[in-house]
Amino acid sequence: ITSVDLRKKPVFRNKGSIGKPFESVQYKTDENGVLFVKGSSVCKKMMIDGVIQNNDDWYKTGDIVKCDNDYYYLVGRESDIVIGENGENINPDECEKLFTLNDAVSFSVLGLDNDEKEEKLCMIVELKKFTDPDTINKISEEISRTNSSLPVASQIQRIYYTFDRLSAEGAIKVGRQYVKRGIKNGSIKLFDKQELSDRIAEKEAGSTIEMQVIRGIIADTLSIDINTLKNDQNIVTELGATSLQYFAILLAVGEAFSISEVDKNESYCYSVNDLYSFIERQKNL
Questions:
Q1: Of 63, 52, 54, 53, residue with least CA distance to 27
Q2: How far apart, in whole angstroms, are the C-alpha atoms of residue 97 and residue 94?
């Protein structure tokens, strides 16, 4: 820690400043806004690749900052910078904060290599497991609208979708290096929109019977029209099932698929999608 914001008014402190450097510390930035730190309270030795190195000069943090009235604000990481086609440095953080995708779990804007090994500015959108095609189209349209308002050099050039987590367990935000490692090692699988549409169509075709059985049980138990039933609707809070009706649905689904444990997993089996997912997991045990 080399700085602090001690301003008392919330209007200033809520701006997200990292504050002013301590009296024992000096800050400077290069032409790209990368922060360098020097001072008597900064560590003097570092272990890099198993080798102890002295640090008596300016330390390059890799953070990109902006300064306003001697107060510093973090705006990104140097390692995340993407070089645009015109040679301009593009900060993914500045681009990412312009998007609001309420129907996505999370998303990240970052630079990824394409087939020609050139880095392109891409957006990766994490979807809920049972996201329907209409929601995907809505997300795509929202991305396109915002993207078209950006300068051409800063526009996103590729959009990918995934059902895998974009953040590490316990992380408070998506880390771009974590995402890049996941893509490289295969733990994060990416789909373009056409591949995603094909995948959903294939999945729906393969699960028609099971889904219809579950939908039929719910519709019969609650005396509702099966055609109005949505697969992501909560049986209790949205469809109004009583506790007796809810457990009757769980028992009926378990009996239909010869699974005796459904009623012991009621903490997360609250929709057609939940029940189908549970059945699939039991089949794979």
A1: 63
A2: 6
The string of pLDDT tens digits covering residues 179-213 is 999 999 999 999 988 888 877 766 655 556 788 89
Pick the closest to residue 18 from 63, 60, 62, 59 (CA basis): 63
The mean pLDDT value of the chain amounts to 85
Alpha-carbon distance of 15 to 71, in angstroms, equals 11
pTM above 0.70, yes or no: no
Query: What is the sign, positive or negative, of the torsion defined by CA atoms of 164, 170, 171, 172?
Result: positive
Q: Count Cβ neighbours within 10 Å for each residue of 5-43 and write b for 16 or more, e otherwise.
A: eeeeeeeeeeeebbbbbbeebebebeeebbbebbeeebe
DSSP H helices, the chain, are 10-13, 92-96, 133-148, 176-185, 193-206, 208-222, 243-256, 272-283
**Rounded to whole angstroms, how far apart are CA atoms 173 and 167?**
7
Dist. CA 138–CA 145, nearest whole Å: 11
The token pair at 226 is 């099966």
Pairing relation of β-strands 158-162 and 3-4? unpaired
Rounded to the nearest angstrom, the gap between the alpha carbon of residue 43 and the centroid of all alpha carbons in its chain is 34
Tokens 């697969």, located at residue: 231
Give residue-wise pLDDT tens across range 41-86: 777 787 878 888 887 788 888 888 999 888 999 888 887 777 776 6
Closest C-alpha among 254, 283, 284 to residue 266: 254
- 230-241 residue pLDDT tens: 888 899 999 999
CA 12 to chain CA centroid, Å, is 28
